[in-house]
Specification:
Shape: globular
Number of helices: 21
Order of helices and strands: HHHHHHHHHHHHHHHHHHHHH
Distance between the termini: 17 Å
Oligomer: single chain
Structural class: mainly alpha
Radius of gyration: 23 Å
């Protein structure tokens, strides 16, 4: 029990460090989106940029952070746990060399195939939008190789339990774009011309992100000497895991491409609206779902390698409860007062009231799946720590079938309405729940019951507190609309969102939540699980 409690406390501390790093990068990223919305709004140029960025970004997720987290970190962490630092270093150098060789070829192929990629992934774009997208793809595709290197740096740092800077360094990527938009935005001759220059700044930002991580990597790892050695047993094991991992992650990326294809047939601005809403919806998932999963993966891998399944199960339960504490109220807030969130971040310049309403509707649809979006990150890490790569693959395959069918049906039914984009988002939410169901079933078969009675009690407290916050938020909303109807959302959002957050935390504390007591710096009202 002592080991389990220590594991929960370590996991909580590490998750908070990850969340702090992600918070820094996400806040700067939100500022980047605010400036982007000011200059682009939701039009042809913004649709083209977001579509072009999605293609190399998918390659980054496949061969960078996603693959390395799933296949590389467990094996590398296990080598460190055995005390084999020399072998771990050779393993990491070989993985880096092989990845860079593969991604270099793919980058060249992507640049050459840019027109074909644009036609396949955004078939509904008109000729002008398609030509601009193709040009942007060619500029952005080299970012793939740079971001794969960034993902390797992140995996090294996380395995050595250096969590903050590996995530906070992404702020450099956004800063490069913000500076470009602020300097070049007012003087750009057109939105299309600005999009081209922004693409170059995006590529430079990726280089700066790696540069920001490099000193810490050298400190914990030593000299980096990429190799192409495939004879190491660890390398062969990682390569053996790559096929199911890449397939599972590829299915997830395929789902986002299907969403892009559907959105390309909708009115101008649909792709951008979906991107704005998705970025905001995934903020709590990144802050809490990804942070808990990323912090837990090295320890979960060590627990699995030493057969400490009781400790592993406790880490899973504590992490899952912590994720729900944050994503449940976030989902409720996005539905009830989400337009204030959108207005606070984006309402400026070319982004007006109509765009704000369209993004809010889409955000509310994404919010339906927030619990599953956050949960599958942690459950997937547990599967990977257990060297189980088939279950996440099956979950991803079912997810894309459900998501694509629902998104296409809903978008077609509402194709002449702003609700069409929300239909795509709702399809993603439904697909994510299918993913969650398969992963839960797989872990129950390996580990036994996952959700305890105490966790259900804690979840009940979370739901009641979120409901109370929704009532207060709605009341503040009505008061604002009655008394200050003409005020800008950047003025009115603070009391509405602040009232929602404080009500949730206070109610959760009254009901006995220790997580809420930490935020409010109050004595816990009842003893219990630290994650409750």
């Amino acid at each position: 029990m002592t080991d389990a409690r220590s594991g929960r406390e370590d996991g909580g501390r590490h998750a908070m460090v990850v969340a702090a790093g992600i918070l820094v990068s996400r806040l700067v990223g939100l500022l980047r989106n605010t400036v982007f919305a000011h200059y682009f709004g939701a039009g042809v140029a913004s649709d083209a940029y977001n579509a072009a960025f999605k293609i190399p970004n998918a390659m980054r997720n496949l061969l960078g952070e996603g693959t390395l987290s799933a296949a590389f970190v467990p094996v590398y962490s296990a080598a460190l746990a055995r005390g084999d630092e020399r072998g771990a270093r050779a393993l990491a150098n070989a993985v880096l060399g092989l990845l860079m060789a593969v991604v270099s070829v793919l980058t060249l192929a992507g640049i050459l195939a840019a027109p074909w990629l644009t036609t396949v992934l955004a078939p509904g774009f008109d000729m002008d939008a398609r030509d601009l997208t193709t040009r942007l793809v060619r500029i952005l595709f080299p970012m793939t190789a740079v971001m794969v290197l960034s993902g390797w740096c992140l995996g090294i740092q996380n395995s050595h339990k250096r969590f903050f800077w590996s995530y906070a360094s992404a702020a450099f990527w956004s800063i490069a774009q913000i500076v470009l938009l602020l300097v070049w935005g007012p003087r750009a001759e057109s939105a299309a011309a600005l999009a081209v220059v922004l693409a170059w700044a995006t590529l430079v930002g990726a280089v700066l992100q790696v540069a920001g991580q490099w000193p810490e990597v050298r400190r914990v790892f030593g000299a980096v000497r990429p190799s192409l050695d495939r004879n190491d047993a660890g390398v062969r094991r990682i390569l053996g895991h790559l096929v199911p991992v890449l397939t599972a992650l590829g299915v997830v990326q395929l789902s986002s491409f299907v969403d892009l294809q559907i959105a390309s047939y909708l009115p101008v601005g649909a792709t951008t609206t979906m991107t704005y809403a998705n970025t905001l919806a995934l903020l709590p998932v990144s802050l809490f779902g990804v942070s808990v999963a990323a912090a837990a993966l090295p320890d979960l891998s060590r627990d699995s390698s030493t057969m400490a399944f009781d400790v592993l199960r406790e880490r899973l339960r504590a992490g899952w409860q912590r994720i729900l504490f944050y994503v449940v109220p976030s989902a409720v807030a996005f539905v009830v007062v989400g337009d204030y969130c959108v207005g606070l971040l984006y309402r400026s310049g070319q982004f007006g009231a109509a765009e704000q309403q369209a993004v809010h509707v889409t955000l509310a649809a994404y919010a339906v799946g927030l619990v599953s979006f956050g949960s599958v990150k942690l459950l997937g890490s547990v599967h990977y720590a257990l060297q189980d790569y088939r279950t996440p693959l099956r979950a991803s395959l079912l997810s894309i079938v459900v998501s694509a069918a629902a998104a296409a049906s809903l978008a077609y039914a509402f194709r002449s309405s702003p609700l069409a984009v929300a239909g795509i988002a709702l399809g993603s939410a439904l697909g994510s729940y299918a993913n969650l169901a398969v992963q839960v079933r797989g872990l129950r078969a390996r580990l036994g019951p996952l959700y305890t009675r105490a966790m259900w009690t804690g979840t009940g407290r979370i739901v009641v507190a979120a409901a109370a916050a929704a009532l207060v938020g709605w009341g503040l909303r009505l008061a604002q609309q009655a008394w200050l109807p003409t005020w800008h959302p950047r003025l009115t959002a603070w009391p509405v969102l602040g009232g929602f957050a404080l009500t949730y935390l206070f109610t959760a504390w009254v009901l006995g939540s220790r997580e809420a007591s930490r935020w409010l710096r109050l004595t816990p009202r009842t003893p219990g699980d630290p994650a409750a």
